[in-house]
């Protein structure tokens, strides 16, 4: 009987591990078609084929080398046992799909910070002292309390691309900061105040004190169009999507693995919102009314290089089933443009600002409103600080109004990193 019970436990554990592994596995490319354009799909399909060919060739070369050195595959397997053991030990702490949760008390939120000196020490945890958090969201009392609070919080899924190029392999403080602001209704209203104050037909202005109070409890991103440039892991994009944005477009440079990871995140976060919406409807919707709408927004992902025409972005949006998006033109564009930690290299200031100017919503005959851009950033020491701040006079020269908002100290991305690299400044452009 004991043996039978032990076998049952082992079988259940094996099934559970397999289910976890399946959940963590990459989604098939075909499933991502709903969040990318046809051109991007063909590009990723070609990249997949090249990667498969490269991996097969590499595996064959390694096999031949091992056979030459040790005389048999068996010896090669034995020799690599230590490496596999280390990888398995690492995998216990590392998952491909990670989570970040917003917080009203902790500026970093929960998750996305490396606490050690190397990749083996990267765990999905916040900057709270070790005694307060063990790396597991579901067992963290601070997270649970915030989920059950009146204002609530959001949890987004993200994947760090392993592709070289740029710095999209980490969740930088600037991304965590703006994502956290989006999830806090009051702070988000303050952040977006330039585009909220110009809405003459806002419900709370027209409909009296009761509707005014109700409107203040709703996230101001509801119904807005948001685009992120240089997204990396896309935390601000997924935060905006969870907060009720009508349209979210997440872009980064044309690195196939980076775009594929973003596309998968877009789909996984959208599925989470759909599940939450269904649960909300079953329980009367009370739990989610404070911070989110009950309607799922549209999310798209595409490669984009700063300073180039925005036609690929427009084409990606027109691929949706929304008639409004199919009729999108170069006047009715985005209410909010985000570029988190994207100005540390001064050579890219001008092309970035050119793209923002192309993407930001401008008044037209049917809509008098202006859009805005948010540029949260830290000073990383790769160049003189004044070189980074020179984006301000350049933006003014290009016709923007620039506000320098109050900076906030967050936890730097890695252990022993200069605290200055966790201090987030914020520029607001209109």
Account of the 3D structure:
The longest helix is centred in the first third of the chain and has 33 residues, at 38-70. By secondary structure, this protein is α/β, with parallel strands linked by helices. The chain is built from 17 helices and 9 strands. The model is unreliable at 13-18, 79-83, 85-93, 117-141, 143-150, 200-214 and 286-294 (pLDDT under 50). Strand 3 (225-228), helix 11 (235-242) and strand 4 form a beta-alpha-beta unit.
Give the key terms.
alpha/beta; 12% strand; seven-stranded mixed β-sheet; 9 strands; 430 residues; two-stranded antiparallel sheet; globular
Q: Can you summarize this structure?
A:
Helix content is 43%, strand content 12%. It is built from 17 helices and 9 strands. α12 (256-282) links the parallel β4 (247-252) and β5.
Assembly context of the chains: single chain
Helix content: 40-55%
CA-to-CA gap between the ends? 72 Å
Count of DSSP H/I helices: 17
Q: What class, by secondary structure content?
A: alpha/beta
Number of strands: 9
Biggest sheet details: 7 strands, mixed
Beta-strand content estimate: 5-15%
The 3D shape can be described as globular
Question: Radius of gyration in whole Å, from Cα?
Answer: 23 Å
Q: Could you name the ranges where pLDDT drops below 50 across 5 or more consecutive residues?
A: 13-18, 79-83, 85-93, 117-141, 143-150, 200-214, 286-294
Lateral arrangement of strands in the main beta sheet: 5-4-3-6-7-9-8
Element-by-element helix/strand order: HHHHEHEHHHHHEHEHEHHEHEHHEE
């Amino acid at each position: 009987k004991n043996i039978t019970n032990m076998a049952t436990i082992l079988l259940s554990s094996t099934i559970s591990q397999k289910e976890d592994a399946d959940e963590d596995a990459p989604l098939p490319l075909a499933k991502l078609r709903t969040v990318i354009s046809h051109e991007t799909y063909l590009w990723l399909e070609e990249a997949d084929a090249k990667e498969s060919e490269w991996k097969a060739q590499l595996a064959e070369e390694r096999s031949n080398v091992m056979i030459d050195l040790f005389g048999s595959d068996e010896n090669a397997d034995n020799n690599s046992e230590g490496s596999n053991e280390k990888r398995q030990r690492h995998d216990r702490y590392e998952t491909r799909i990670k989570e970040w949760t917003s917080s009203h008390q902790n500026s970093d939120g929960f998750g996305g910070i490396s606490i050690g000196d190397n990749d083996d020490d990267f765990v999905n945890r916040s900057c709270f002292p070790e005694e307060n958090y063990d790396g597991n969201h579901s067992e963290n009392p601070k997270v649970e309390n915030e989920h059950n609070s009146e204002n609530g919080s959001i949890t987004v899924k993200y994947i760090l691309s392993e592709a070289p190029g740029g710095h999209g392999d980490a969740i930088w403080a600037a991304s965590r900061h703006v994502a956290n602001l989006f999830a806090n209704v009051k702070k988000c209203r303050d952040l977006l105040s330039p585009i909220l104050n110009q809405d003459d037909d806002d419900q709370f202005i027209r409909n009296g004190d009761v509707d005014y109070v109700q409107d203040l409890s709703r996230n101001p991103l509801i119904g807005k169009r948001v685009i992120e440039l240089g997204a990396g892991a896309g935390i601000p994009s997924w935060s905006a999507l969870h907060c009720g944005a009508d349209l979210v477009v997440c872009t980064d440079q044309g690195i196939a693995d980076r775009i594929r990871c973003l596309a998968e995140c877009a789909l996984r976060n959208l599925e989470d919102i759909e599940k939450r919406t269904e649960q909300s409807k079953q329980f009367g919707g009370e739990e989610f009314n404070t911070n989110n709408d009950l309607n799922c927004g549209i999310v798209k992902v595409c490669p984009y290089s700063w300073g180039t025409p925005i036609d690929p972005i427009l084409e990606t949006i027109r691929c949706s089933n929304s008639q409004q998006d199919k009729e999108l033109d170069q006047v009715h564009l985005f209410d909010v443009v985000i570029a988190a930690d994207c100005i540390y290299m001064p050579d890219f200031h001008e092309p970035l600002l050119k793209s923002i100017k192309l993407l930001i919503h401008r008044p037209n005959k049917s809509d008098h409103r202006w859009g805005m851009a948010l540029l949260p950033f830290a000073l990383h020491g790769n160049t003189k600080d004044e070189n980074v701040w020179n984006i301000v006079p350049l933006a003014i020269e290009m016709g923007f109004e620039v506000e320098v908002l109050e900076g906030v100290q967050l936890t730097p991305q890695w252990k022993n990193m200069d605290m200055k690299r966790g201090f987030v400044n914020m520029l607001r452009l209109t």
